[in-house]
């Protein structure tokens, strides 16, 4: 047990790093104009000066908003122990007012070792929260409310936001509301009475620059020189990483990947995939790992469905539907597709002509796979054969998929073209 | 011959085993559940055995194992997706058997609401089993995602502690099967979004999440957006892989291989799903073996040829029946299912004559009347069913001009789109009376007058009976109520019967259906 394979240990270490957002975002927060310093400045002034504040963190999903906030909160907890309380809510879970108040009360009780009553009513909870805000303010303790998925709280009557922000208007309270949202217009969703109480401070999270990505890669992938690894292995591994990252092919790959999605989290997934396919025998990463990772990350599910999953009969049906679309027939159902299928069979004498019930079943398969779907949801009284259908796959995808299909008959490709 | 059954058995036993170990009941009273039950429970298997158990899934298995990673290493959420019966669930579970690590498996197929899903996961984590002593209650009552997160966090940290004490690693995995079904749930979009972001909400890297879905990740994109898990794609089996799968559990491999040479290619053009193929192949193989006395024989070329020519007529017919057995494994008792069965089998010549269910004569007439009312335009009723009994010979149509042809084509297209039309009850009854009288008159020509009037008299007291028949036809799904017409306010009906079935019914009454059917 004690003698562990260094390769496996490396793998564990790097995977652990990739799954730990605080580790990932630590180096990005170093400079003085980073979001980390901005956020920390705002929150720490409200702690030291005992004032209220509200901030919105905006940026695309996976750009590290929550991670940076966690970093800030963690550091502040160390700096000012006993005077910071963090209440975390998530719009996905607590978008209902009753539920949100209950959760706040629960977390406050946990924090201050009070007895939490599940049976407490909405009113009792909200009075409790306001009382707690006042008490904390008098004791110079700051409560930080973290509202993840902030836009979800802006649905409905926004009672939670209103009562939080309204309570913060009083001098005695001392709280910070931090909203996190991927909607850039999140503050526009607020009602007038809420908006007027909101401070409109916003911090925008942008995708990392090229230099930041380079330093991030090194930060994530290089092994520490000290510790328990055999020293020769560490230098060998780090040398290999340096070789890979400076390779122009790797740079191209990274560029194509970041063109699709340039957030830090998607980059992490890409690296995770590459690292987990590391060769454990040699214990080194290779360019090949990143190549396979790229191909398995950039999938085209619809194309794959045609290429690998569809049988010949299903391809016939897809081609028939496509032909009907080309003929500018406004809508079509199974019966009209079968008609087209029959005309094709009559004029070309194909070997694949099956009974209607077989085709219907193939049709159902296609529908299960969501390659096709019913054009409208109403009209369920009508039998499935008569409900209008539509293709969910583009012509080029169909074309490409059939071309790379293992045994697609040549006649079908011809039929697709005209 | 038992190949298919045994393949089913192994497949079942996999699921059964998993459900016994972690999902539920009857742990022997002497054996209180422990964290050890969270592992697969049986002996772990080697990688080689795992790979040979799943022909054609080598790269997927290796990919999955790599993504799950070595012992104690945290993992990002993974999504396994692919078509039905491509081995997603079995591979995932057997991979855990190979790795021998603790996991929790819940399927959205059995847990059909958020509450059931949450409680099933919590029950397994809390090592709680529903039994008669606790009134089959769950360990915790939980139907909101917010409660679930709190309870899950609590349960996870407890389990982790125990796992740590028993040195069983630091990771626990959560497998959620059939995620695609959640889409149809009430508020399913919310639950899906919650499930996809569970990893970032929990912030507990000790929990590895594996989602298994029948649909590719792109169907889950909504306007809300979330960070999607790492995809692992299970494609449909290729022909060679299917051959390996079917041969794997065969006793006489040579004979079966000869059989597969004949059948696999044509059937693969229709479907490549193992479950569908296996049911068809089992019956076909029985036919294939009919001329043989000794099933252990290894066939030579001559014998193969003979067997093939023997089987050949069956192939085409069962090609057209391929889904019949698999889609309806038991003969249904309701008429609706029989109707579908009847219409499915109607393609076969020899079965065309036989109607495989019983109906009263008046119900048959009603069925035909409903079919006619749905297919014929209402304006033509008068000319179809006039006193001459629809025998009128329509005037020869004039040569159609180009424009009228075009119009006709458009009308035809519209008719196809609309499907069978709807009709009020009065029209149905009127047509019913007309055709019933015609049908009777065909028995005895000379009694025509009498018979017709007699029927009229009778029909008055039979009216309630007819209405009963209509409602029972509705129950049997031969006809459906298609909502009321906003102008008239009366309920309209629609016939759901296929033309083949109706022809069959008409033939059993020797009723000239085609004469009354308006053809465009």
Description:
The complex is a heterodimer of chains A (418) and B (520). Chain A folds into 3 domains: 6-16 and 209-297, no CATH class; 31-204, Rossmann fold (3-Layer(aba) Sandwich); 302-417, Arc Repressor Mutant, subunit A, CATH 1.10.10. Chain A has helices spanning 6-18, 21-25, 35-49, 65-79, 91-94, 97-112, 122-138, 150-153, 159-167, 192-195, 210-221, 231-246, 248-260, 264-276, 287-297, 301-309, 312-326, 334-348, 356-368, 395-403, 410-417, and strands spanning 53-58, 84-90, 142-148, 175-181, 201-204, 372-374, 389-391. Chain A is α/β, with parallel strands linked by helices and 418 residues long. The model of chain A has no long low-confidence stretch (mean pLDDT 86). Chain B is α/β, with parallel strands linked by helices. Chain B folds into 3 domains: 3-234, Rossmann fold; 239-325; 361-391 and 410-516. Chain B has helices at 3-23, 47-53, 58-68, 88-99, 114-125, 145-165, 188-196, 198-202, 239-248, 253-268, 274-288, 301-319, 322-327, 335-345, 361-375, 381-384, 402-418, 425-441, 448-475, 499-508, 513-516, and strands spanning 78-82, 103-107, 172-177, 207-213, 230-234, 422-424, 479-484, 491-495. In chain B, strand 7 and strand 8 (491-495) form a beta hairpin. In chain B, helix 1 (3-23) packs across helix 4 (88-99), helix 9 (239-248) runs antiparallel to helix 10 (253-268) and helix 11 packs across helix 12 (301-319). Chain B is extended and about 90 Å long. Residues 1-30, 325-353, 389-397 and 443-460 of chain B have low confidence and may be disordered. Classes of the chains: A alpha/beta (418), B alpha/beta (520). The interface between A and B is large, with 66 and 67 residues.
């Amino acid at each position: 047990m004690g003698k562990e394979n260094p390769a496996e240990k490396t793998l564990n270490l790097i995977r652990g790093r990739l799954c730990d957002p605080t580790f990932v975002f630590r180096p990005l927060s170093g400079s003085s104009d980073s979001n980390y310093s901005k956020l920390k400045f705002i929150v720490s002034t409200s702690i030291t000066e005992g004032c209220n504040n509200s901030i919105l963190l905006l940026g695309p999903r996976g750009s590290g908003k929550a991670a940076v906030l966690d970093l800030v909160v963690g550091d502040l907890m160390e700096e000012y122990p006993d005077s910071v309380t963090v209440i975390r809510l998530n719009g996905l879970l607590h978008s209902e007012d009753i539920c949100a108040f209950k959760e706040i009360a629960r977390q406050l009780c946990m924090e201050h070792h009070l007895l939490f009553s599940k049976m407490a009513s909405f009113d009792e909870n909200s009075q409790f929260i306001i009382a707690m805000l006042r008490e904390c303010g008098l004791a110079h303790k700051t409560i930080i409310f973290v509202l993840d998925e902030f836009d979800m709280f802006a649905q409905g009557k926004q009672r939670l936001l209103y009562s939080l922000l309204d309570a913060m208007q009083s001098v005695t309270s001392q709280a910070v509301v931090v909203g996190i949202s991927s909607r850039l217009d999140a503050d526009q969703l607020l009602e007038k009475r809420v908006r007027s109480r909101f401070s409109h401070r916003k911090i925008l999270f942008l995708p990392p620059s090229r230099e930041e990505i380079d330093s991030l890669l090194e930060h994530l992938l290089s092994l520490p020189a000290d510790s328990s690894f055999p020293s020769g292995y560490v230098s060998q591994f780090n040398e290999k990483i340096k070789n890979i990252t400076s390779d122009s092919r790797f740079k191209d790959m990274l560029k194509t990947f970041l063109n699709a999605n340039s957030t830090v989290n998607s980059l992490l997934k890409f690296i995770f995939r590459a690292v987990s396919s590391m060769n454990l025998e040699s214990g080194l990463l290779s360019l090949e790992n990143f190549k396979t990772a790229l191909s398995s990350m950039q999938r085209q599910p619809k194309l794959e469905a045609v290429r690998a999953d569809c049988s010949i009969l299903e391809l016939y049906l897809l081609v028939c539907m496509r032909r009907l679309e080309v003929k500018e027939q406004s809508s079509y159902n199974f019966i009209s597709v079968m008609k087209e299928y029959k005309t094709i069979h009559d004029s070309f004498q194909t070997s694949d002509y099956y009974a209607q019930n077989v085709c219907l079943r193939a049709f159902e398969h296609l529908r299960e796979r969501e390659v096709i779907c019913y054009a409208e949801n109403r009209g369920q009284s009508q039998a499935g054969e008569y409900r209008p259908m539509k293709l969910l796959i583009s012509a080029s995808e169909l074309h490409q998929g059939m071309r790379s299909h293992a045994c697609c008959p040549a006649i079908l490709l011809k039929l697709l073209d005209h | 011959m038992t190949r298919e059954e045994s393949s089913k058995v192994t497949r079942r036993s996999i699921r059964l085993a998993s459900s016994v170990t972690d999902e539920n009941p009857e742990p022997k009273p002497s054996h209180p559940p422990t964290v050890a039950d969270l592992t697969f429970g049986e002996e772990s298997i080697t990688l080689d055995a795992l790979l040979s158990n799943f022909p054609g899934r080598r790269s997927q298995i290796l990919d999955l194992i790599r993504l799950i990673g070595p012992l104690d290493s945290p993992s990002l959420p993974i999504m396994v997706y692919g078509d039905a019966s491509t081995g997603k669930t079995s591979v995932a579970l057997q991979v855990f058997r190979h790795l021998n690590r603790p996991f929790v498996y819940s399927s959205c197929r059995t847990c059909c609401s958020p509450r059931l899903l949450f409680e099933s996961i919590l029950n397994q984590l809390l090592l709680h089993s529903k039994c008669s002593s606790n009134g089959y209650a769950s360990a915790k009552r939980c139907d909101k995602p917010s409660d679930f997160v709190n309870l899950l966090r609590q349960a996870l940290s407890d389990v982790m502690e125990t796992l740590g004490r028993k040195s069983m690693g630091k990771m626990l995995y959560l497998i959620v099967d059939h995620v695609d079904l959640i889409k149809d749930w009430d508020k399913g979009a919310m639950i899906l979004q919650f499930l996809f972001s569970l990893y970032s909400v929990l912030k507990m890297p000790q929990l590895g999440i594996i989602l298994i879905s029948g649909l590719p990740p792109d169907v889950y994109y909504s306007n809300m957006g979330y960070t999607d898990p790492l995809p692992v794609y299970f494609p449909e089996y290729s022909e060679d892989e299917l051959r390996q799968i079917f041969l794997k559990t065969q006793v006489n491999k040579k004979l079966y291989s000869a059989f597969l040479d004949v059948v696999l290619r044509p059937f693969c053009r229709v479907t490549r799903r193992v479950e569908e193929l296996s049911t068809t192949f089992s019956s076909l193989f029985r036919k294939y073996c009919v001329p043989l006395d000794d099933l252990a024989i290894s066939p030579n070329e001559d014998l193969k040829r003979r067997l093939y020519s023997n089987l050949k007529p069956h192939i085409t017919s069962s090609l057209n029946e391929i889904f019949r057995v698999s889609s309806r494994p038991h003969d249904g008792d309701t008429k609706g299912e029989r109707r579908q069965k009847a219409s499915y089998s109607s393609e076969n010549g020899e079965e065309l004559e036989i109607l495989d269910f019983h109906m009263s004569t008046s119900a048959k007439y009603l069925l035909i009347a409903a079919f006619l009312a749905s297919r014929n335009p209402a304006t033509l009723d008068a000319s179809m069913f006039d006193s001459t009994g629809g025998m009128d010979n329509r005037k020869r149509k004039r040569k159609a001009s180009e424009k009228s042809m075009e119009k006709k084509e458009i009308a035809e297209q519209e008719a196809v789109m609309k499907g069978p039309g709807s009709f009020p009850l009065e029209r149905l009854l009127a047509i019913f009376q007309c055709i019933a009288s015609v049908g009777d008159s065909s028995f005895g020509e000379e009694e025509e007058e009498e018979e017709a009037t007699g029927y009229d008299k009778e029909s008055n007291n039979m009216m309630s009976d007819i209405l009963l028949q209509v409602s029972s036809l509705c129950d049997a799904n031969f006809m459906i109520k298609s909502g009321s017409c906003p102008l008239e306010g009366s309920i309209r009906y629609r016939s759901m019967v296929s033309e083949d079935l109706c022809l069959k019914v008409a033939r059993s009454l020797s009723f000239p259906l085609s004469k009354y059917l308006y053809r465009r």
